[in-house]
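# step 3/5: fold
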Amino acid sequence: MVDTGVGPHSALKVKRGLNTTAAESGRRFRDEDGHGSHVAGVIASAAAGWRRGEASAVELHAYRIFESGDPYASSFAIAAAIKDAANQGCDLVNLSIGDSMADDGIRDAVEFAWARGCVCIAATGNDGKGQVDYPARYTQAVAVSAIGLIGSWPAGTYLDWTLSASRGKALGGQESFLASFSNRGAKVALTAPGVGVVSTIFSSRWGVMSGTSMATPIATGVLARRLAASPAVKDLPRGAARSAEIVKMALQAAEDIHLPAGMQGKGLAR
């Protein structure tokens, strides 16, 4: 995962961490924001019960792309992280980041990873607009939107602001809806829950966050688990054909939740 770093957290085991900002030590990958740790926990938390991540057995590579105190990541840091993940043999790269502006360096990194059998899963963005952000908008990235389930958010949280008029079918007895903040558009490939998600934050704490940033690691974790159980795809030579088969598998497994394609893509990541 390419984000604000990870941990420390007792439920997260990082196989490899790297700071790619160039301005800081490469060993400085600890999280000073909380966002990256939350994303990582959605995928890889080893906690018991409902706090377990979608793919707790994954080998987690954590990339910190933000310098201390800086709310913006450079295109250099993002591209370097994606390329390093691909070179390290990662199957999937979670990109819970976004911008309305295209960047050639980041696009090239996404294509670099694709050519090495490594697929980038990216958040559509949280502006509630009809076009997805970059890098999700790039051809070889898998764009993930966010849905919610009415009445499912944790006690003590007020998340009615996330409701929209776009309603899908019930999941687990609760009506689904496109999150009001979720960007949408023709590039959307999958959707996943992104409202009131509980996960790890730094210092071994737990927190609630909402956003396409939370939906994306759910999709990434689900796909990681499916890929691990699909040796016919996982064991393919690492190249563009492998990437295409990974995406094909993800889209074929998606569940139609009866939202328009521009909101759900092929459906709920399964």
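# step 4/5: annotate
The mean pLDDT is 97.
# step 5/5: archive (pending)
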